[in-house]
Amino acid sequence: MSVAFRRESDEEHLEPKFELPLPAGPNLVTERGRSLIAAKVAELESAIAAEQDDEARNVLKRQLRYWHTRAATAEVVAPPQGDVVGIGSRVRIRLAGKERVIDVVGHDEADPAADRIAFQAPLARALIGAEVGEKVDFNGKAEAIEILETTPIP
């Protein structure tokens, strides 16, 4: 029989499972972010211990590898001091005539629906380093954002 007609197993035809992609750049986090990462690791470890299905357990292990890497590479950023926006800042801004309060956080802590944006997001990049009273350019518009107030995230 020709080798072309032999089939060793069904697994050789499955799509490869790649690791979850890590965000580019440093893994800067707030204290809250580090706690959230630790909680996610503990949650996944418990889920793996309780899971009976091998395939489901492998999916959980893949997620756990991602979170272990995020925990190992996390760099906690000191809370910002003074009136300068940084990672860990709660910022009240005026954008397009509307006031908004935004928290600048690490990637894994970000939740845009809750106004927590990652420091790598375009809006956060425009805000970081700005001071209260300053107007910064954003989205191709000069002085589009006015920094009204900044405090450390409680």
UniProtKB/TrEMBL annotation:
UniProtKB keywords: Elongation factor, Protein biosynthesis
InterPro entries the UniProt entry points to: GreA/GreB_C_sf (IPR036953), Tscrpt_elong_fac_GreA/B_C (IPR001437), Tscrpt_elong_fac_GreA/B_fam (IPR023459)
Segments forming domain Transcription elongation factor GreA/GreB C-terminal: 81-148
Statement: the UniProt record of this protein carries the keyword Protein biosynthesis: yes
Database matches in Gene3D superfamilies: Transcription elongation factor, GreA/GreB, C-terminal domain
GO molecular function, a single term: translation elongation factor activity
Tagged with keyword Protein biosynthesis: yes
PANTHER family hit by this protein: TRANSCRIPTION ELONGATION FACTOR GREA
Protein name: GreA/GreB family elongation factor
